[in-house]
Amino acid sequence: MILRRSGVSADELASRLGVAEAQVRAWANGDPPLSVVDSVAQACSVDLAKVLAEPEPDPHDVGLLETTLAMTVDQRMQRLKAHVRFVQAGRAALRNAQ
């Protein structure tokens, strides 16, 4: 993501960081430690906070938020109570199955 945002190539980043290009590609395809992400962001002149922030909200989450905001307080409480009953029933079923 940092490379796409900055326009820096993997080869150029490897040169800037003094590592092999294969290492940069491994980081891009894996889950590098935060210290590596920070170093890469600095080398690409990208703000780390922007890298760590979710770039776009998940459409499903937005839909849930919009649905919830359209509800009255009473409707939200009823939904919460129904959820609690569901969880309690599931826990009871698990206890009874053991």
- What is the element string, with H for helices and E for strands? HHHHHHH
Evaluate the radius of gyration: 23 Å
Q: Quick one: overall form?
A: elongated
* Whole-number total of structural domains: 2
- Indicate the proportion of strand residues: under 5%
Number of helices: 7
Q: Please outline the major beta sheet.
A: none
Overall number of strands: 0
Descriptive terms for the model:
2 domains, 434 Repressor (Amino-terminal Domain), 0% strand, 98 residues, elongated
Lay out the secondary structure.
Elements: H1 2-6, H2 10-17, H3 21-29, H4 34-43, H5 48-52, H6 59-70, H7 73-97
Helix pairs in contact: 2-3
Tell me what the structure shows:
The protein is mainly α and 98 residues long. The protein has two domains: 51 residues, 434 Repressor (Amino-terminal Domain), CATH 1.10.260; 39 residues. Helices cover 76% and strands 0% of the residues. It has seven helices and no strands. Helix 2 packs across helix 3. The radius of gyration is 23 Å and the shape is elongated. The termini are far apart.
